[in-house]
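Fold it.
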Amino acid sequence: MIRFNVPPFLGTELDYMREAIAMGNIGGDGEFSLKCKHWIEGRFGTQAAYLTTSGTSALEMASWLSDFEPGDEVILPSFTFSSTATAFLQRGARLVFVDVRPDTMNVDETKIEAAITPRTKVIAAVHYAGVACEMDTIMDIARAHGLTVVEDAAQGVMSTYKGRALGTIGDFGCYSFHETKNYSMGEGGAIVIQDPALNDQAEILREKGTNRSRYFRGQVDKYTWVDYGSSLLPSDMLAAYLWAQLQEADRINDDRRATWDAYYQAFLPLSEKGLLGIPTVPEGCVHNAHLFYVKLADLAERTAFMAYLKEHGVQSSFHYIPLHSAPAGLKYGRFSGEDVYTTRESERLTRLPMYFGMAPADRDKVIETVLSFFGKRR
């Protein structure tokens, strides 16, 4: 069976983890955590990055730093993971869902302005599959209305929009280093912050409400509880695992892009005949091959397609059930405008196996199996 996902592993991760143990600091913000922090800041061009325990906790930090009050609203796509919503719910937010673009499955930027009310505080831009939202338009809308932009770039590490790293365009950017992501520490994430005036607050927030970070830098002679906070520092052993992969970020990216490109070229003829939908990457966007999806005619054909792949030894997976139709979505949010594409397109979408180090023979088998499905049915 060709697995849908295999977490990235280079072999040097264990060496760095042993080194972290030998240094005697396996808690948070040790040497490897700082290496990862500085790599993100330098590679992506942001003034501050902080590792977190997950992409979810990075989003939670962004919601706190956005100064939400109960009843404030966040505009977000319904086609996303629950974390995008729950991060703001913890601050008492109301969710306002808008439709997606069928070409990228990202939030439809032309639907955002109509969803704005006097209680709107944040626009959450989710970069699906590592392909950027239309950020110029989103930022123009946000600035015109005095709104904060949080980029959910959980899938977007190493992707860019008009030369800028995803996560560094809005006020906050949130990454995930979950085992399903291109770069992994098992469970982990990071937040990047554009305004240096928020750095101290961010440090206090992730350090259990204390000014412990200032103490370790020698800026205060003792640390104490100063504000609300949580425990959001990942172990330095996990950071050591991630550090091995960040050092080989381009190699991992190139490997994944090779598989993505092979899929794209193989399925392009089917797309041109109208038999299969494949991803669209708009001009000015450079993606990171986080995932490759195909779109079938409808839910019935998708069900048959996934069953066929499984029968022939290929794992596949659908993706999000739209949040606005979920029990929590009905309870905590509303859909602004009409659901033209969100539900319809989500029911057509299937993700194919995609991971670093995928053997060419396995990739070719996936391609042959997909092609044979259409050969047998047409």
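The chain has a mean pLDDT of 96.
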